[in-house]
Amino acid sequence: MLLRPVRDTEEDAETVRKLAEAAFGASHALKGEAPEESVPDDRAAARAARGREKIRHLARHDPAGNWIAEDESGQAVGAAQSSVREGTWGLGLLVVAPGAQGKGVGRALLQRTLEYGRGCLRGIICCSRHPAAARVYRQAGFELHPTIRMRGVVDRDRLGPVDGPAVEGTPRDQDLLDSVDRRLRGGAHGPDHAYLMRHHRLVVADDLAGSGYCYINAEGKVALLAATSRRLASRVLRAALLGGEEGRVVEVHDVTAEQQWAVDVGLAAGLELRSEGFVCFRGMRPPTPYIPSGAFL
């Protein structure tokens, strides 16, 4: 097996994207879950293009933290993407092709990404319910915090109005976003905010009591949320859920037990809750109020 860096090219990005698609599909089958709902061709093409852009973004900003595993024939059998942002390391992706699982590919990729973050005091991983992944991350020294996934159509009457000002964010809010990041996770997301702003609606609240923000994409999935208080976190989450298309299914992933404020908002909105996976931390307590991004953490 050979490990090589992920290049900032469409070819490598598509290789990593297809590996992730195959691995996640196999993971759903292993857990007895239905495959993801099919989407129209135009939406599928747009989603694939966003996926390649995200992969290239990480490869560009963290070239030493992104790796592809190839077998003896040169076939890609696994990939991992990690990032370092101001002393906080994050694992955004670790996938192994179904036929190559259980052969040490995932451990080798994880070890290479951990080497990239060896100078970091803090680490974060969003982990699925796949038992092998949880075992490997725990053995690497991460604490596993079980998470909740919330999903459904927002009941606007039950959720009620937002309790204060929450506005559409712009690139001018970058300093505010980075300041909140540093307070909660010890490191700003920095360049990741540019990608998130291109593909998500950003809701920002900023007053004398503190600041908070929430990203939500056009498909109704909350991508990242951080705030300096539970009240502001609830405000930006409510505003994000209410600001979407009426009748659209929304999703909030990776809600840990520390985020009961988010559970309260989800229940008020009429969302269904279920146990999902883990958020893993090393060298830090779970930040709160905070909902991580799977890719940018």
TrEMBL record:
Pfam families named in the record: Acetyltransf_7
Domain called N-acetyltransferase: residue spans: 1-160
Protein name stated in the entry: GNAT family N-acetyltransferase
Keywords tagged on the record: Acyltransferase, Transferase
Coiled coil residues, start to end: none
Annotated InterPro entries: Acyl_CoA_acyltransferase, GNAT_dom, YpeA/RimI_acetyltransf
Taxonomy, superkingdom: Bacteria
Keyword Acyltransferase among UniProt keywords: yes
Annotated PANTHER family: ACETYLTRANSFERASE, N-ACETYLTRANSFERASE DOMAIN-CONTAINING PROTEIN
GO MF term set: acyltransferase activity, transferring groups other than amino-acyl groups
Transmembrane regions: none
Organism this protein belongs to: Streptomyces reniochalinae
